[in-house]
Prior knowledge:
The complex is a heterodimer of chains A (156) and B (495).
Chain A: E1 2-3, H1 5-23, H2 38-60, E2 67-68, H3 78-99, H4 101-115, H5 120-141
Antiparallel strand pairs in A: 1-2
Chain B: H1 2-11, H2 14-32, H3 38-49, H4 54-71, H5 73-79, H6 88-99, H7 103-137, H8 141-158, H9 163-178, H10 203-221, H11 241-264, H12 270-284, H13 296-312, H14 314-320, H15 326-337, H16 344-349, H17 351-384, H18 387-406, H19 409-427, H20 433-456, H21 467-493
Helix pairs in contact in B: 1-17, 2-3, 2-4, 2-17, 3-4, 3-15, 4-13, 4-15, 4-17, 5-6, 5-7, 5-17, 6-7, 6-13, 7-11, 7-13, 7-14, 7-17, 8-9, 8-12, 8-20, 8-21, 9-20, 10-18, 10-19, 11-12, 11-13, 12-13, 18-19
Keywords (chain B): Membrane, Transmembrane, Transmembrane helix
Protein name (chain B): Tripartite tricarboxylate transporter permease
Organism (chain B): Chelativorans salis
Amino acid sequence: MRFSDRMLGGVLIAFALAVGIYSQTFPDIPGQQYGAAAFPTAIAVALGGCGLILFARGLLGPREPLITLTEWTRVPGALLAALVTILAVVAYILLARPVGFVPVMAAILAVLLVLLRVPWWQTAIFAVGTTLVIDFVFRSVLLVPLPLGIMPRLPW
Amino acid sequence: MDAIAAAFELVATWQVLAAVLSAALFGLLVGAIPGLTATMAIALLVPITFFMDPVPAVGTMVTCAAMAIFAGDIPGTLLRIPGTPASAAYAEEAYALTRKGQAELALGANLLFSAIGGLFGTAVLIFAAPTLAEIALKFSSFEYFWMALLGLTCAAFLSVASPINGVISLCIGLFVATIGLNNPAGVPRFTFGSTEMLAGIDFIPAMIGLFAVSEVLRNIAAGAPRWEIVQERVGNVFRHWGGLIVTYWRQQLRGNILGTIIGALPGAGADIAAWVSYAISRRFSRTPEKFGTGHIEGIVESTSANNSSLSSAWIPALVFGIPGDTITAIVIGVLYVKGLNPGPTLFLFNPQNIYAVFLIFVLANLVLIPLGWVAIKLAKRLLQVPRAVLMPIILAFCIVGAFASTNSMYGVIVMLAFGVLGFFMEENEIPLAPCILGIVIGPILEKNFVTSMIKSGGSFFSFFERPIAAGLGILVILVWASLLVGWARAWRRRP
Lengths: 156, 495
């Protein structure tokens, strides 16, 4: 997914305007010229400047569609695969705490491995194996409080 | 002399040596796994060091950091996923070498110059610590402002394709750095009522997202074909050593010196040393056009710099108790717990402990070569694992690594957001590196700008009133001027 110069320039100008205008609501340091707003405003100006240059370059150059698909995104299923991966992480964020690290991580790994056409027996081995290794290393050795959820703590 | 003998006695015990060896293996493992940083390795070691005596405790952290910074080069070279932020500066370049089938050249250079760099930094730490720290201590906000600006300017040079895209990436990073409460005015900015965002965007999950998750997304979307063109086996990493030293001793020395200076500055560590060195190497190279296409020169200079900065970061940490980087910041906390309050008194009352730490520095950089070689040999197996299996597993480690950095789901959310952002940026040929640099240096730049302005009553001329500040300021202006002249020439030459 590639934005044309005009599109990217436009997005950057809009973002810079939003940042710049919102920054003006930050309170000043009393008696000082430069406070919390100074730095974000400077960033907004620089970003807006880049946006303007891109926008102008887009207007002067040959006309392009606003959004073009890069080579690999035209492969059937490519965008779907990226979307499934993002949704898998979202699922972890939402479900790990109530359900527990081990079942959620194993399920996510299984979904992604199947998506990538890994044979089912390898899927089972890698999904469960990786989850158990991570659980052992991070929970027991490195003492990271991975969410337990409904799962009992594994015997290590 | 008694103190040095006592230091040898402190180090030459099996507990210390065993601790150093296990810390070395742990550092290699963590550094080689993409998404786990040297800082995280140190942070994860802290609970274990509480059960140790002071010397092995500090020794494990020293060794672990040196190994992790080197090992970060391995996935950076073989998979283009930097294992630690300090490797990010030249991950593209090293990967380009791997694509040409010369991974052993890149990894051999990384191993050799990491060890030499570490020893160089240690030598400076041992012999010049007090003097150098005094110079750095004289720096005021004006000098820090220019140093930060110089780093950001170098970031603009690092963007290969288009300087505009580099500046866009930098601005995104700088914007991310403004989020939270951590600013001179102490005002929550862009937090939109979120308590977790008050502390700002955590750097580690952001880096995992930008560099690892975006790569995983791209790979999975492409159906995870087997690694393309990448080298099947890494040859003899020692083969090129003689030639590299003869050809690139200038770059090595420049990287060592610059890395040591940057490391000795409070607040600037291995990552900034690597970035700045890479940019300088490119700037002064006789063949700058080869940079980015798999050219060893920049790798030599920046890998020399990041390991030497790691040692010299201890100069302000040990002598004045000011952390040189994130790793020494954690170590300072441990030193206080151990009753070894960092500061000049440490040299007066417990010199044997300081000398023992120095000895461990030398030891760590010497064992780096055999252990690093083993790590490189084992890392080859990463390539034999099919990508379809590896990518979901890397994603799993990313999720857990991001979670571990904050011990909350917030880290995973940040990681995902930056993964999608990085994916989109790469699609539009916006380089990721300046963004990361903006996130790291942004707060330093802002703090010193506002402090300087408050001190000077809003006068811009005060940035040139102190000699070192004036020198640094003129340097920054010269760099920008050369950039503008380059643009003007390119504009005139266009058809």
